[in-house]
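Hello Y.,

Per our agreement to keep a running log of every chain we model this quarter, I'm adding this entry. I've kept the format consistent with earlier entries: sequence first, then predicted structure.
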Amino acid sequence: MAKSRSLYVCNQCGAEFSQYFGKCLACESWNSLQEQLVSAVNASTRQSGSISRTTGRKRTSTQTAAQPKASLTLAQISDHPQARLASGYIELDRVLGGGIVPGSLVLIGGDPGIGKSTLLLQTANQLAQHYRVLYVCAEESGQQVKLRAMRLGGGNGETGAGAELQTPNPEPLIPSNSSLYLLPETDLDTILEELESLQPQVAVIDSIQALHFNALTSASGSVAQVRECTSMLMQFAKRQNISLFIVGHVTKEGAIAGPKVLEHLVDTVLYFEGDRFASHRLLRSVKNRFGPTHEIGVFEMVDQGLQEVLNPSELFLGNREEVSPGSATIVACEGTRPIVVELQALVSPTSYSSPRRSTTGIEYNRLLQILAVLEKRVGIPLSKLDAYVASSGGLSVNEPAADLGVAVAVVASFRDRLVDPRMVLIGEVGLGGQVRPVSQMELRLKEAAKLGFKQAIIPKGQSFSLPGFEVIQVARVVDAIATALGGRPAVEEFD
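Predicted structure for the entry above:
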């Protein structure tokens, strides 16, 4: 019988060591090594030869395999497309690339209280109208999940705990004929047995950090536990063709907690994000083997749970009737979705030796670069002024196409000028003061025209004809500022 030996695993990066160190040599984090007991591998078995997967016998390098090859050529593999499962939410299907792929693993992460369990419970209820769904609530009891379901959409008409939360004649979130099954369990073996016996089409694990595999001595949520539980769930889901949703905790830096291999094992990684003081939530795709990445879905948190926002441009556009100096409108692209966003800038004299720069929704270093271009190429003394830039609704806009809108908004605030509220600005600002082309221009202009905008300033060389929509091409940021502010050339104004 093979003896057990100690192995020390870092709970931050997953690095393994044969002896204990106070600091991990891989990620340099202190007191992160945890001891685990593993079975010693017989070295003679590895040296003498490999083990045949079909017969279980040793095979040396001189022997020839008696069984036929298990590998297939690409032409021999069946190419029948699998029908995706509709989740019942257009926004979620968009982020997943058109629906839920059977046998796929989807990891959803987000800050505590952002709405991960709410989204998955509502999605599980929609799927349970047509498929058998198992919801593993590893962090809650069945009664607690029932209470949340009653808060979201009412109960099933029964009295008892939580009945005071019901509204008159509520629409039940989980009807009596629903095929949604709850399993309050943390033991991985029990969960796998239930999956084997129930054979659901969709399963939800909430959350992976709460599961425990008895063969490992480490605590729940450790690197070894998360890695082993996810690996076994992945193998079972692929073998039984079960679509699996996994909830993952995040660290204080915003990354998925646990080993990085967790994100490599799953097929899709989604982040559910948003400001807890705002009502909207963004479901963002950062990895997707079956669809585009960096796609977003927009939801709004209301009394009855999460609702889809099918036209997010109206949410991030602000009040177009009350125009103030320093406001400009851009069209950002998140994946394949164009979103019209209002940017606001405020420039004021500084009271400190070094001016302050603050951003909300705009990358900080990008703002510093745009301010340097405006001072060098346009002549605005921004080194002596405080500058604040924010996007309406707090939407994070990181693409370069927002540069021109930021530049015009800053200049408009400095000169106390108004930008036409029916105008959008699209373009990247180079260090030489030029306006560079951006991708998906036609898609952006069509979105602006659909929302009632009449004019757009875009980089030179990108022109698209739309009925009733004027497109102005500019080559330099100076020309864009002069056109947007409706005055003389910008250099003359600031001299």
